[in-house]
Fold this protein.
Amino acid sequence: MGRPLNPHYERLSLWHDTVETDWTPRPQLDGDVEADVAIVGAGLTGLWTAHYLAEADPELRVVVLEAETAGYGASGRNGGWCSALFPASLPTLQGYADREAALAQHRAMRETVDEVTRVASAEGIDAQVSKGGTITVARSRAQWSRARAEVADARAWGRGEDDVRLLGREEATAVLRASRTRGATYTPDCAALHPARLVRGLADAVERRGVTIHERTRVTAIEPRLARTEHGTVTARTVLRATEGYTATLAGQRRALVPVYSLIIATEPLPPELWDEIGLARRETFTDHRHLIVYGQRSADDRLVFGGRGAPYHLGSRIKPEYDHDERVFARLYATLVDLFPMLAGTRVTHAWGGALGIPRDWCASVGLDRETGLGWAGGYVGDGVSTTNLAGRTLRDLVLGRDTELTRLPWVGHRSPAWEREPWRWLGINAGLRAMTVADAEESLTRMPSLVARAVAPLLG
Ligand SMILES: Cc1cc2nc3c(=O)[nH]c(=O)nc-3n(C[C@H](O)[C@H](O)[C@H](O)COP(=O)(O)OP(=O)(O)OC[C@H]3O[C@@H](n4cnc5c(N)ncnc54)[C@H](O)[C@@H]3O)c2cc1C
C-alpha cells in the first residue's frame, strides 16, 4: 500500500546486486481466494515446498504469500554455503529419537546438498554452484585439539574419511593459506553458491509450474485453514508457515524463534595472483575452529565473501532494516579477514549487509504438519538453512500429500522446540551468550588452552 514500485531490493546485498532478475514486484493478493495449500513466505522454505508440491501434483492450487519480494529474507542474503550441516548435533538428535534416526538425519542432509544442485540444474537455474567442500582451519593449539576431537567423535558415530577428515598443516595450506594454520578438518559435503540466483530462479521455476506468488502481501494472521492479509484472505486446506527469522512478528509466535543477526562483507573481485596466494581453487567454503561463528566463500566472480555472528540481539525480537548494518561488526569482520589473510590488507570492501537467522530455544530445526488444524511449519535452521530448506520442502510435500516416507520418519519431523524465555531474560541470556563466545576466543588466544568460558556456557547455548 503506497509503496514505490521498485523498492530497491537490489541494494540488500552483494547477491541482490549481482543477480539478473526483474525486481518489479509480482501482483499483490487482490481479494479473497481459495487454494489447496497456502504458503507464508517466499524464501527457500516456501519455494522448495511449492516446487515439490507442484511437481508431485500439478493439479494442486498452491499460493505463496510474501511480505516483500521472493528472496528478500535470509535466503537471498546468506553466505552461500549449501552444506550438510544441521544445527542440532547427533547426540541431541539421538536424545530425541535414537542413534539410527540421528544418523538417518545426517545421511539425508548429505544427500540434500546434491539434490539442491540437481534441481537447480534441471530447472535451468545457474546458481554458480561449486561443490568444493568445506575446510575448517585450526589456528591455535586449542583449535587444533577441537579439530582432532571432532574427527574422533565422527569416527565414534561410524562417520568415515569420506565424510570428515583431518588435514595436517601441509595438506591444509595446500587448500587454504590462512595465517597460523596448524591443520584443518575437511568435509566434501558443501557447495558454494550464489544465494539470490538460487532463490530468484526458484521463484520463476515454481511459477512456470503453475504456483501463484503474491508479493508485497504481508500475512497478518495464520489460523486453521486460512491466512489473513490486508488485501484479502486465502482459505486453504493446508497453511504452511515459512517465515524463519521473521516468525516472532506473527501473532502467537513471539517466543518460537529468535531473530539473531549475522553480518557479511564482500571484497572487490581479487586478481588471480592474490588467489594463487590464498588458495580455494575449487571454491571450497571455509571457516576456522573459533567459538564465534565466521564463514567465507570465494564467489564465482572471485570476491572474498566473509560473514560472522556477533551483532547484538534486539530486545523483543525486533527486526528492522537498519539492524542489517552495524559498522562495528563490519569493522571486526574486516579485521578478522585480514588476520586470516594478511595479504588482503587494504583490499576494498564493496558490499556489507546482514540478515536475521531463526533460532529455536533448543537449536533444533523442525518441520511438521498438524492434521487437525491443517497448519504446518518448517524452520529454526540457525545458520544452516540453504540445504535444510530443501529437505524441509520435500518433507512438507510428503506430509501434505499424506505419504509415509523415509523423510517423514526423520527425527526433526514433528519436533516441538520449547518457547524462549520472556523478556528481558531472553535479551540478557542471548546477548550474554554471544558475548561469551567472543570472550572465549580472546581467552584462548591469551592462554593457548581450550576456553573455560566456552565450556561453562556451551550447555546453555546448545
Ligand atoms: C547473513 C546470513 C548468512 C547465512 N549464511 C548461511 C549459509 O552460508 N549457509 C546456510 O545453510 N544458511 C545460512 N544462513 C541461513 C539461511 O539463509 C536460512 O536458514 C534460510 O535462508 C531460511 O530460509 P527461509 O525460507 O526459511 O526464510 P527466509 O529466507 O528468511 O524467508 C522468509 C520470508 O518470509 C517473508 N515473510 C516474513 N513475514 C511474513 C509475513 N507476515 N507475511 C508474508 N511473508 C512474510 C520474508 O519477507 C521472507 O522473504 C544465513 C542467514 C543469514 C541471515
